[in-house]
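Input chain follows. Return structure tokens only.
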Amino acid sequence: MSEECLSSARGTFEAVVSFNRRIGPGFCRLGLEFSGEGAKAFAHFEPGQFAQLDISNTALPSPEAVPDHLRDAAGRNVLLRRPFSFAQMTAEGRKTTGELLYGVVGPATVRMTTLSAGDKLSIIGPLGRGFRIPEGKKTLLLVGGGMGTPPLQHLAQALTSQGSGIEIIAFAGARTAEALPYEGRLDDISQQLGFSLAEFAKCGVESLVATDDGTAGHRGLVTDHLLQWLEQSKLTPDEMMMCACGPEAMLARVSRIAAERNIDCQLSMERRMACGIGLCQSCAVECRVPGSSETIYKMCCEHGPVFDAKEVVF
């Protein structure tokens, strides 16, 4: 989407909650429905972009429903909007529906657990710049760590629905099986077939799981699993591309792997974004200046959150 198009589409819209379900320990999936101008704007929401949600008027759950480790933090006022990428976006007629994934980690997300069908939310978006897949790529490797999966799920959905013809393989990593933010059970047969994660399987995308403790899939880091795959692949670097989202240490290693093998790579960076439109300057990412040893700072919300791996300084 062009910068002019992004500028004209951006706005504050109302979304109606269609569902809010728990999918695992501390993970929930929230469905939102846009209509009117919001439906038009979010119909063009690109994988990797984000939206700012207003949670300030959302009620707290009952005290017994608040996780013990969040009892003290839960009562804090939620003044700023919270940024979220979407795991899925579907435009049908005059209605656009989206699904986002969230972990219950603080006062805002604790409140989000009380949202139910019919509730309304104020949302600013679409914001930022998403993934851009150049022509000529035959294989796309998606590398997600922990809660980094939503924009990668959306990218897989978008490319397969467009009939891009690109082979997509998703690598998903977490500390343990319980820390994988996906729905459904990981059984031996589905893992052997490479379709262990339903969110990717429904798009016909192979998924390879890695956990630090070996409770699911490969035992070790997801980047180690990625390296093993690359060592066995017969594809040339110009035929491949990598897109990653997750903890910064993981992104740094993915960036090094891509650079060492001369593979194009884009990273979805995570920063605290208070405004989401480049005004507060709170989400700076240090970037290289091409042809120079100097660096500059770019705003994650405005110039990202998706950056070319070559430009990010870790």
